[in-house]
Amino acid sequence: MNKEMQNTQKKLIECMDVAVFGSNSTDEICSKVKCVLEEWVNPETILLDSKYLEPEPGSYARRLFHRDPEGRYSIAIMVWGQGQGTPIHDHAGLWCVECVYSGRIKVDSYSIHGLPEDDIVNFKKMTSVDAGCGSAGSLIPPFDYHTIANAQPAPSVTVHVYGGDMEWCNIYQKREEGQYEKLRRELSFTS
Question: Based on the number of CB atoms within 10 Å of its own CB, is 143 exposed (0-12), middle (13-18) or buried (19 or more)?
Fold first, then answer.
């Protein structure tokens, strides 16, 4: 990694620290983090070197970019190959701001019908967004049920800022008659 890219990454993290630590509520944190991402993620600013941008066969790649030393937030880079996406999932109670770094991503948001602790629930699709470079959105529990999918034939890359370390989440697998079964999925980073 060249010195200019290192300096850019360092400045981004400094701005992220200010956004996260200088806020009093989850809504304010997400709003400020979204502003930082929208400012720093654009075609003219190169934030990521090639080690973050390689797709993985069979599943999207999830790579750690930064972890706050006190665990207050983390940044993950995800690479989505052609046809790759997620099932409906939550963020295990963590807030999240997601931003498209390159390519196009489709995000479908859902409302849950049932209680979050229920093993079987129903979902209603609420919105669908086709997002390109620099587009950012926030997910704040309990309104965080969604899917993400690559919306183009070439790989797409997204930046995800979480309110802590997201080590697991609940995914929802479709069963008969529109019902979904909640399953806990442990998460790890791609090497």
Answer: middle
Through-space distance between the first and last CA atoms of the chain, rounded to whole angstroms: 17
Is the CB of residue 35 less than 8 Å from the CB of residue 121? no
Find out whether the peptide bond into 153 is cis, omega within 30 degrees of 0.
Answer: no
- Nearest residue to 134 (alpha-carbon basis) of 26, 16, 8, 39: 39
Torsion, Cα 15 190 92 40, to 10 degrees, reads 20
What count of other Cβ atoms lies within 10 Å of the Cβ of residue 89? 20
pTM of the predicted structure, to 2 decimals: 0.95
Strand partners, 159: 77, 99
Q: What are the tens digits of pLDDT across the range 113-139? A: 999 999 999 999 999 999 999 999 999
Residue burial 56-81, b: 16+ Cβ < 10 Å; e: rest: beeebbbbebbebeeeebbbbbbbbb
**H-helix or E-strand containing 98?**
strand 96-102
Q: Is 189 exposed, middle or buried (0-12, 13-18, 19+ CB in 10 A)?
A: exposed
